[in-house]
Write a structure and sequence with these properties.
The chain has no helices and 7 strands. With 120 residues, it is mainly β. The chain has a 7-stranded antiparallel sheet, with no helix packed on it. Strand 5 and strand 6 form a beta hairpin. The two termini are 19 Å apart.
Length: 120
């Protein structure tokens, strides 16, 4: 996972995220997504919980290229004032276009990530 974010205010973070997973149990099960997100977070110290919304694209061998939108929540645990561990869980819906050109929510996927970060 890779993300870069910006504090738009004391409790709002705007970010761009790239998530990816790969497993090879006889067939390619790769899954990647790129998204923009807005998080509503606590102050950047101690344990800082957050909730947010994201929209982006999903692609890979295990999913048709499609738009996704979803909710996520997690916590940043600050080890030092500028270093944290992030736990993130999300629930994304895939959006597809039907023959009559209306968009419908199809399948959904849950994602969970553990990452490390720095602030600057």
């Amino acid at each position: 996972a890779f993300a870069i974010g910006w504090y738009a205010s004391a409790d709002v973070i705007l970010s761009v995220r790239h998530l990816g997973s790969f497993s090879d149990n006889g067939e390619d099960n790769s899954y990647f997504s790129d998204r923009i997100a807005v998080d509503f977070a606590g102050p950047p110290r101690g344990v800082s919980p957050f909730v947010g919304l994201g929209i982006g694209v999903a692609y890979g061998e295990s999913v048709n290229e499609t738009v996704l939108a979803g909710l996520h929540a997690g916590a940043r645990i600050f080890i030092k004032p500028s270093t944290f561990v992030q736990l993130l869980g999300g629930y994304d819906h895939f959006v597809s276009r039907t023959e009559d050109r209306t968009e419908v929510f199809e399948d959904a996927v849950s994602t969970f990530t553990l990452s490390f970060g720095v602030t600057f």
